[in-house]
Automatic annotation (TrEMBL):
Segments crossing the lipid bilayer: 42-61, 73-93, 99-121, 133-154, 160-180, 201-224, 236-254, 266-283, 289-309, 330-352, 358-377
Keywords of this entry: Cell membrane, Membrane, Transmembrane, Transmembrane helix
This protein's name: MFS transporter
Organism: Streptomyces bikiniensis
Residues annotated as domain Major facilitator superfamily (MFS) profile: 4-382
Gene3D superfamilies per record: MFS general substrate transporter like domains
Membrane topology field: Multi-pass membrane protein
Location relative to the cell: Cell membrane
């Protein structure tokens, strides 16, 4: 593994920790600022929306900057946002710090995916992307429970200082280990935008929104589901989330391993399996052991789609992958926000805490339908012997170099 990938993974670990650790610290933050839990929940919503907005915005602003320098600037922004969160005297400033940190999230993973893919041979690209995303999944196994423990024992501000320190380590690692990668000639903003004229890019992003939305429809409400339906104690929820994180890690590992060999069959299997498991979750949620196994499977099947979907966007965007890759990271968070909202609606409508699982199953099944449609369009294109017009337009720019 190139050492540069390790630097990207450290950055991903810090970002994953700050994204998810907030959920375990919400009661303490709400108490310190004297706000309600729903109001403190804006720290989660604000972060997700910041990712959706920041992914395309900062990527566009960085089109004239080398990818290595842009990654360093993004990690600097991440450090600044977490320090602001740690030191914020008011809830408003705390929220501002969360949004500042989140702005770096989408662009970092988007540009990082492109850089990771460039560091290895063509047949190892998905594996390299998965290696970087390992930092995000390991954050849920180690960073989030550890950050929650530190926040509860010493104070939540200490957690954000520690995350900022992780960001500094990632920044220094990128500066030291990532090779200089100048922006390819011809990779202007107009070329980047042309990638969105390719229906395959849009279909891959729609799969991302729906497929990952299926995961978060269930996981957003896993705490009340496990305590009120499965019968777990409140203190057990943290360990169930660790189990979910282990599933994410394993799924990401398998996704990276097989996406380079059989990308579309992997998507069919993962999305179809996810739809079935989420539908069964409405039943298994009533049993402690089966519920725990299901939480693990939801994490595994959900994250098995991440490397292939990200690689699918990179492949279909051709010579202008940077903006499309970053927007796809925003699509993951858009799916999170959409699914959390829909799951909340069915609970509020009186259908119970297991109802979001049905929402997730429908979303995952819809993503599977889009995957099948995407493959059919691709076969039709190959049968006619014509390349997609958008691909030709984008390919008129220089291709991204691959470093072996």
């Amino acid at each position: 593994m190139p050492l540069a990938l390790l630097a990207l993974t450290v950055g991903a670990f810090g970002i994953g920790t700050t994204e998810f650790v907030i959920m375990g610290l919400l009661p303490h933050i709400a108490a310190d600022y004297g706000v309600t839990i729903p109001t403190a929940g804006l720290l989660v919503t604000g972060y997700a929306l910041g990712v959706v907005i920041g992914a395309p915005l900062l990527t566009v602003l960085g089109t004239k900057v080398s990818r290595k320098r842009m990654l360093m600037l993004l990690m600097g922004l991440f450090v600044l946002g977490n320090l602001l969160s740690a030191l914020a005297p008011s809830f408003g400033l705390m929220l501002t710090g969360r949004v500042v940190a989140s702005l770096a999230h989408g662009s970092f993973f988007g540009i990082g995916s492109v850089v990771a893919a460039e560091l290895v041979a063509p047949d190892r690209k998905a594996g390299a992307i998965a290696t970087m995303f390992t930092g995000l999944t390991v954050a849920n196994i180690v960073g989030v429970p550890l950050g929650t423990f530190v926040g509860q024992a010493v104070g939540w501000r200490t957690t954000f200082v520690a995350v900022a320190a992780l960001g500094v380590v990632g920044l220094l690692g990128i500066a030291r280990l990532v090779p200089a990668m100048p922006r390819p000639e011809g990779a202007r903003l107009r070329g980047e935008l042309k990638a969105f004229r390719n229906p395959q890019v849009l279909l891959a992003m729609a799969m991302t929104v729906l497929g990952f939305g299926g995961v978060f429809a269930a996981i957003t409400y896993v705490a009340p589901m496990m305590t009120h339906v499965a019968g777990y104690a409140d203190g057990s929820v943290t360990w169930l989330l660790v189990l979910f994180g282990i599933g994410m890690f394993l799924g990401n590992l398998l996704g990276g391993r097989f996406a380079d060999r059989a990308l579309m069959p992997l998507l069919y299997t993962a999305l179809g399996g996810l739809a079935i498991v989420l539908a069964l979750f409405t039943v298994t949620a009533h049993d402690k052991v089966l519920a725990a196994i299901t939480v693990l499977l939801v994490g595994a099947l959900g994250f098995a789609t991440v490397p292939p979907l990200q690689k699918r966007v990179l492949d279909q965007a051709h010579g202008a992958p940077t903006l499309a890759s970053a927007v796809n990271i925003g699509a993951f968070n858009l799916g999170n926000a959409l699914a959390a909202w829909l799951g909340g609606m069915v609970i509020a409508a009186g259908f119970g805490y297991t109802a979001p699982n049905w929402v997730g199953a429908v979303l995952a099944a819809a993503a599977l339908g889009l995957a099948l449609w995407s493959a059919a369009l691709e076969r039709r294109t190959h049968a006619t012997g014509a390349d997609a017009p958008a691909a030709e337009a984008v390919d008129s720019g220089a291709r991204v170099p691959v470093h072996h």
